[in-house]
Amino acid sequence: MEPIYLCIVVFLLCLAVFDLFVGVSNDAVNFLNSAIGAKVAKFRTVLIVASAGVAIGAIMSSGMMDVARHGIMQPSNFSFYDVMTIFLAVMVTDIIVLDMFNTLGMPTSTTVSLVFELLGGTFILAVLKVAADPNLAFSDLLNTDKALSVIIAIFVSVAIAFVFGIIVQWLSRIVFTFNYKRHSRYSIAIFGGIAFTALAYFIFLKGIAKSHYIAEDVRTWVEANTQMLLLATFVGSSIVMEVLHLLRVNIFRLIVLMGTFALAMAFAGNDLVNFIGVPLAGLDSYNDYVANSGGVGVSHFMMDSLNGSAQTPPVYLFAAGVVMIVAMATSKKAQNVIKTSVDLARQDEGDEMFGSSRAARSIVRVTQESSSWISQYMPKSIARWIDSRFNKEEAELNEGAAFDVVRAAINLVLASLLITVGTNYKLPLSTTYVTFMVAMGSSLADRAWSRESAVFRVTGVISVIGGWFITAGVAFVSCAIVCIIMYYGGIVAKIAFMALVVFLLIRSNRKYAEKEKDADKEDVFRLMMRTRDPEIVWDLLAKHVSRTQSFTTRFVMQNFNAIIDGLESERAKTLRRVSNDLAKEKIELKKYRRQELLALRRVPTEIAIERNTWFHLGINSSEQFIYCLRRILDPVKEHVDNNFNPLPAEYIEEFRPIRAQINDLMQQTESQISTCRFENYRETLSLADQCKDELSVIRKKHIDRIQQSKDNSKLQVSLVYLNLLQESQQLLSNMRHQLRAAKKFIDN
Fold this sequence. Notes:
Layout: H1 2-27, H2 29-37, H3 43-59, H4 66-71, H5 80-103, H6 110-132, H7 138-141, H8 144-176, H9 187-205, H10 216-224, H11 226-246, H12 251-292, H13 314-330, H14 332-344, H15 358-377, H16 380-389, H17 405-424, H18 431-445, H19 454-516, H20 519-530, H21 534-569, H22 572-600, H23 605-641, H24 649-675, H25 681-708, H26 715-746
């Protein structure tokens, strides 16, 4: 039996390495988004600073491993078999849940997933044990008080972080305005002193000073003299900040980089348990069983040893830190999650990642009405003065930045302070929740959410917060189900779930790789919104429009053929796939229209005036393509779903030459738009007119055929075919409009 559990432990350790990659991909957003969003330094520099914080935090994190050992469960009443079942179920569920959220680009909390997975697995086994043994109480198996305090603190931190983000950012902007360099002469020293003191308190007094590697007498002295140290740090750092400011050093940039280091250290120190705590607890359990079981069966050897504090070898912690640094630097998924947080906090107009929702619309409407009510009673002079402090025309953004360094500094300092307060009161706040909600609150206070974008960004915040709550529910229920299946299914069930995890991870990474292929078009849009030269914006916009319209033409041709194939072969599955593809493409076209319209406002004025009519005609033609295909598809799909008479062979043969001509014309159109070479433009339009004339002849012939037919059994399929002929003509008309619009817009 021992070799089997050794294999499980090895599997847990392998999952720990992968969990580090997946978890860091998700949690890197906590400490990287402010520095990256404000472009305070090169990406490589930010990574180096964060890596230093991660390395130190990882080595100092040994004491946090107790959460997985006895933070949720009471291990004295669980056998070796029980805890290994719980640990394996937790890791299996954790990998799947976190990877799913990363693939969707949604931030989630590794703390939430770990706590609720441990809670779910422990809860379900506790229920079974209490049912089997009346002498056992729930509190003998589940650490209910600790679990409840963790849950409450995690979710209360959402509101606290958001409200404090709004208040502190609003006050900071009143002081510094968007032209922070002009208003920093005296206030920067005080701000820098407060920020440095807060971060120093976070890094040294709450980080390094709590480490097991610091001598006990040093820790005691630091705790006894904390107030004196804070006062001295504030005075000294304020003087240093003023001197650096006079020497033309950007204090905000310094604070942002220091804050990045502090949060990275906190992340590694506090959250490392989320990734390797369970596998290391499994390893300790196995070592204890091998050394002390004395032949006792796995179901009867109780795990009292897990009540003791973890003594994690430094080499494990160092190796985990190295893996986290490598994952942070190389993971595309990490960059995707960072993009979500940066986009939601963005200062300028841009592409909105989320749509609208009823809840978001209600929140925005109530907020606007409340703002209007307050404005009625506020003196006009005060309102004008406040507005002058929020003049975005004076904003000083670094090249390519989504927001300025003032907001980046507030995000990091405030997040660090809140986490420090939580630590003081022994409230295990989620670093993900705190950093994300501070960023959302500060962006709202900064008036980054205009009336045009507010509903989309509120939807985004609701979606992300909802995702966190869903994480909790999914983690709890999923782990409970997996755990009970493993408990009763034994080794066979455990091996089956291990194989399932490997399969799901391989499939997930393949799907994400396919998704990344479509990212190039998003890169072009981001470049358009960050570029200041209108001529370069125009070149990029022409490229973007060309690719959008050529892809739409290719998409339409493929799905037109798929509909006809589905009708001829009566394959309902093909038609359902086309229906789903049309719905997705309609959403994509709406997104690209907004992107391109935003970019069109940034091109030279004379070009915009000259070309905007053709832009709108082109995008309308693309949308009409989708509507046209939908009008073809719906009758065909209904016909096939109802198993009505198939399309007669004579209709198929009659339409085949027309289908070939339409395909050839669509290919010509796609080629001309994608290459921006329109030498054969008039010839293509002429051939399209000829094809439309042929369709008119066939349509008239078919109408006569319907009129003269006495066989009512073919009436339904005849009407479907008539609709196909009519909409094929409309398809060609749309193609002509799009080709003409593309030529006039790109090659005018």
